[in-house]
Amino acid sequence: xxxxxxxxxxxxxxxxxxxxxxxxxxxxxxxxxxxxxxxxxxxxxxxxxxxxxxxxxxxxxxxxxxxxxxxxxxxxxxxxxxxxxxxxxxxxxxxxxxxxxxxxxxxxxxxxxxxxxxxxxxxxxxxxxxxxxxx
Amino acid sequence: xxxxxxxxxxxxxxxxxxxxxxxxxxxxxxxxxxxxxxxxxxxxxxxxxxxxxxxxxxxxxxxxxxxxxxxxxxxxxxxxxxxxxxxxxxxxxxxxxxxxxxxxxxxxxxxxxxxxxxxxxxxxxxxxxxxxxxxxxxxxxxxxxxxxxxxxxxxxxxxxxxxxxxxxxxxxxxxxxxxxxxxxxxxxxxxxxxxxxxxxxxxxxxxxxxxxxxxxxxxxxxxxxxxxxxxxxxxxxxxxxxxxxxxxxxxxxxxxxxxxxxxxxxxxxxxxxxxxxxxxxxxxxxxxxxxxxxxxxxxxxxxxxxxxxxxxxxxxxxxxxxxxxxxxxxxxxxxxxxxxxxxxxxxxxxxxxxxxxxxxxxxxxxxxxxxxxxxxxxxxxxxxxxxxxxxxxxxxxxxxxxxxxxxxxxxxxxxxxxxxxxxxxxxxx
Lengths: 135, 429
Description:
The structure holds 2 protein chains of 2 kinds.
Chain A: H1 6-10, H2 15-23, H3 27-46, H4 49-66, H5 69-82, H6 88-106, H7 110-132
Chain B: H1 2-11, H2 15-29, H3 34-73, E1 77-80, H4 82-90, H5 96-116, E2 121-123, H6 126-143, H7 147-177, E3 183-184, H8 189-202, H9 227-246, H10 248-255, H11 260-300, E4 305-308, H12 318-341, E5 346-347, H13 351-390, H14 393-399, E6 404-405, H15 409-428
Parallel strand pairs in B: 1-5, 1-6, 2-4, 3-4
């Protein structure tokens, strides 16, 4: 009545919940992603510049869906290095850096904490540059 | 005793040295090596001195601009520049030490609030905290606060803003990014929420809502690619047109042997040089303090939500940034002509604020009210972020600031809190 209590339903997922949601993967999807990864890895070696950025981005997103965070970070960083962009790869990388930052804080690991904070600063700069059209 | 007196009278009175000593203390507390401590302290000292040098350049240019504007248009023309306000407050007003201590106090209060309340936001945009510290110190000083009280009250108000602004933006940020793990840490948030409110009233609703992201926009404005180039694009015509209105005779009294228009051109570049130098100083100054704070804050508040600078939202709605920039600029130009009609000073548009604050506000407007929300909301936002700084001009003038006013509206709101509530309350009791 009067819509009271509706607010609770709208409450966003906690990070723990969203992390669980990310890990739920059907066997079919997993096989599909693993196949895509092997194809893209071969492709990435042959490509340069923009094409490589795009392949690495797809690769990074596939790794992310598979829950392989480190591989996802490596691929997405390679993608941004090949070409600055603010697409899905960028957003996923920001999410991953922030997760790494939170883990480092939890484990009192100052060096990793500073590293991921700096990497997040780097992403802010890329966002500024791409929006302003800096090549 | 003589040594202590010498230290108090000659060393601690120097703001640059005090600020360097604060940085040194922070580095020692973090158990940094002797080498790191010395280099960090010296860099901080250097940063403060570079900032001062930048401020002196800006002031020189602003004094000239103020004179030609008054001669040319018979009214005061104010340049919105938080950098110019910070530089003048740190140096000409001698508030450098208090600003630095307030800056640290804001960090401390931010950590305390995030640690002990349910608002877990840690504000990570160091430069924005420096601007907030500047405004709380300047207006706290104006309200009559001195010493410890000035710093603690400034730290508390700044700390509350550092948590409250990301908190009020968060429902919109969740809607825009689809996640709750990252927040927005930019002291223009009141303007963003204002635009969202306007977009809610005038924007498209429900199924009719069309996002600006579906539009095909022309490629980015090339002049925006570089901060200083974009400043020049605005400042050069502004100075030259004003000098032309002031006329050759008056211009010659200021330009010596140089042609008056050429002199105006050079002065406009001087302004940009001043901002360049000042911001280089800010980077040096904050380079040691901010990472230390981040490390401490994140460890003390392990479940913190980091509040990042406004470009964090750009990837989620890049078209809205461009629409926000254009519409905010239109709004600020309308306000520029409208405010003097009612006896206010003329506030000239600030291209950088219009881009970063306007662009982010555009994202809020689009998220709430679609295309129409972003466009109408943006124009209102431009007017709003010009009106608020105009309210501070009289106080800035009384305090001896030269021809500038603040930009980031949250810092302006904090200043108005002092001017309209804390100051009168202090006088009443």
